[in-house]
Amino acid sequence: MTVRPSRLVAPALAAVLAPALLAGCVGGPGGDPTSTVTVTETPEPLGPAQQELTGSELTAALPNVKEVPTNFAADPGGRDPEEERTETADPAACLAVELNTPQMRTFRREHMTAADQRRYSATSGVSGVSLLTVEMWTHDEPYPRAHLDEAGAAVGECATYTVTSNDTETGPWEAKTTPIPLLGDQSLGVRVGDRMHDIAVDHLWVSSGHNLLHVSMVTGYREDNEDLLERTAEGVLDRLER
Fold this sequence. Notes:
Blueprint lengths: L11 E6 L19 E6 L12 H7 L10 E3 L13 E3 L11 H10 E11 L8 E9 L5 H10 L6 E5 L2 E10 L8 E9 L4 E10 L2 E9 L6 H16 L1
Helix pairs in contact: 1-4
């Protein structure tokens, strides 16, 4: 399992202990003293990067061209992050690798309040296609921990799978986890690729309170993009904290 546990402190528990009652007040001599403990949960305050964002706050946190490597230029393409994706996969569990199961789509449809993305393409220094995309969604309630848990568990079932979109099947693809540090509340790194044809998409998913961040890189299979994805995600979270 590569989904990392939260580094946030668990909600504090405040115990209020009622004074023990005198023996004579609970039934006379021989009566047992009693006490009552009331436990209340105090929610941990959400940090700036965990709160539901406005559309302008979300967009401002995404990297501009000065905040990506100098050999990347803005690319106006890319999908609309608010658009619902309808791919199918075989095995079906592999939809979770890209946080796109029917249940995950339903949560996004019912709770997403804003989304945006930025895409950059490499202009030099790489062989083949190299695209960096940063997407983020904010919701009216915290992003479910179970979704990243499910995605991490699904990777083991997806050593070979296919994806069908608009009646076109692609693959077979291979999914495997990639090493990443803990970012936000949970983080998950996954590479989906085709070793034979030297193509891969590296994914870094980060949940932070109400927000879901996705940094991805289309690249050659032999390329190592972990540092770039990590720095890009950290930059988004840092800008939210300012």
